Amino acid sequence: MRQLLLTFFLLLAPRSFAFVAPPASSSAYAASSAYKRAPALALSGDISLVDQLTDPLLLQHMATGGALAFAGDVIAQSLLSESEEKSIPPKDWDVIRTNAFVVFGAMYTGGAQHFIFNYLNNSFDEPLARLAMAQFFFIPFCYYPTFLFMTPLLRAGWEHGFGSEEAKARQNQLFSEVATKIPPTLLRNWCFWLPVQYVQFNFIPAELNVTFTAAFGVIWNAILSWSTAAGKPVAAEKEA
Questions:
Q1: What is the 3-state secondary structure (H, E, C) of the chain?
Q2: pLDDT tens per residue, range 14-52
Q3: Could you tell me the end-to-end alpha-carbon distance of the chain, in angstroms, rounded to an integer?
Q4: Nearest-CA neighbor of 155 among 65, 83, 230, 214?
Q5: What is the rounded CA–CA span in Å between residue 208 and residue 198?
Q6: pTM
């Protein structure tokens, strides 16, 4: 499993960070500009919902989010490892936890934020308005609820089988442990992301917003993984 995840990261990382500059031709530039003007998840207009969901840039952003979530959680676990022999990944690597972070990173950090930033850039002219909406609306009311629902569900399901009583009990345990750490983590979030996203919304081109935040997300994912890390299952549960 370790080799599989490392292979996944090594294959996706080069593509995730690749960026092709907008073509010089006016027609190609117009197509690019049309994409940036399109409202998030538009159901009508020049760009259909299917086209948006199959956009190569969206897939690139999802790959970036997943790959960097992988890196962030592996780094966090390596720093906090109780194993005497330090390594990356650590000897006591919780692969299931990393898997949950990878899925969350791909679906929300890369996928959902692709549309969120598109919406913010099209709806608000002032960078400070985008920053305020991102940090004081989307983070507390979208980001953390998704995180609280998704990561305990995936971890419990992969540990005990989705739908089992053991998985439900484990999910409730993980949810309670992580939920108690959300308020202090939210304060850390604002300390970290307010200056980062101030730069993003003022100086970073719209098409690079997700890649920019995902790059800083390596550090943030390590902080998030560390500050909300719930306990691992005991040895008997692992052997079952």
A1: CHHHHHHHHHHHHHHHHCCCCCCCCHHHHHHHHHHHHCCCCCCCCCCCHHHHHCCHHHHHHHHHHHHHHHHHHHHHHHHHCCCCCCCCCCCCCCHHHHHHHHHHHHHHHHHHHHHHHHHHHHHCCCHHHHHHHHHHHHHHHHHHHHHHHHHHHHHHHHHHCCCCHHHHHHHHHHHHHHHCCHHHHHHHHHHHHHHHHHHHHHHCCHHHHHHHHHHHHHHHHHHHHHHCCCCCCCHHHHHC
A2: 444 343 333 444 333 333 343 343 344 444 456 787 888
A3: 18
A4: 230
A5: 14
A6: 0.74
Token couple for 16: 């995730």
Confidence of residue 77 (pLDDT cuts 50, 70, 90): confident
Cα–Cα distance for residue pair 194/209, rounded to 1 Å: 14
